[in-house]
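FORM 7B: Structural annotation worksheet

SECTION A. Query
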Amino acid sequence: MSWRRTLSKVRFLLWRRPDDLAEEIRTHLAMEEAENVADGMRLEEARDQARRRFGNVTSTEERSRDMWTWTVLETLRMDIAYGLRQLRRNPGFAAVAVLTLALGIGANTAIFSVVNAVLLQPLPFSDPDRLVEARETEEAPGTYPVNPADYLDWQAQNRTFEATTVFSWTGNRNMAGPNEPAAAAVTEVQANFFKLLGIAPTAGRSFAKGEDVAGRNRIALLSYGFWQQHFGGKTGAIGKTVELDAERYTVIGVMPPSFHFPSTTDVWVPFDMNGKNFKTRGNHGYNVIGKMKRGVTLEQARQDLLGISLRLEKQFPDANSKVHAVLFPLKDRWWAERGSGCWCCSALWRWCF
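SECTION B. Predicted structure
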């Protein structure tokens, strides 16, 4: 289609009056009729002859509109105009319709945003398909957090994981530091936690190997939002000392603004992996993530940890009776954390999984 014809169509759509085409046809018929009269025909005969030569008026109007406009756009324009007239006549119905559409569009947009971010997009970690969460069974139905002593045995005896890491549930502590006191949501982690996930701080450094034992674990990493809110986003915060429930920690780094795992954490600190909590069996209170070796399937990793669990059950029959390891893709936990705050997302999670 030439640019002249396209321009003609656009001009006709934007600037024509509704009766322009009909007026043009009437003018053409009148001119033809006048020519016939000038040739000596009677007026009635001249009018009939002009109409016969011109053809069907309605059909001509439709063909002309097809030539001058894009039919789909013209139909859409007419439908919109009709709809607006009807809404103007019924303002109450119009308000309800607009509100219903707005709620529907908003809800669908919110759900799609979550589904896209969590189900369709990969996890924001290194090699996300190789990351799994480990849990344990008990005599009661369901799965439970991991016993830390069991975790140390898994870590030492497994053959299918490149690395494993453990972290606590997030808990609130009172923070005192260079600025005003504040409440901080603190998560304890194994020193390799961030390395396993493939996440580096945006400022400062991460935890190093061996910094998760007593005497070396009084260091802390801040979330980006917590750093901005309580330290003004100043790099001078690195190296400062803060107190968490009266225990002194040195800030060594700040995590990127996109990193929120566990989702509510303000401050990460290392465990004491040699502490008594990691030597006691029977209590289940820790979270475990594993990174499978390349080429290892989820089922192979499950069987590997299950075999270790069965050996521990024989070795510690009182504490480990019916305590077996189970694995899930880490994406399941990622989605559950982000869907738990919204009833529609939680419902979608239950429906999907």
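SECTION C. Observations
Confidence is low (pLDDT under 50) at residues 340-353. The first strand starts at residue 131 and ends at 137.

SECTION D. Sign-off
Analyst initials: ____
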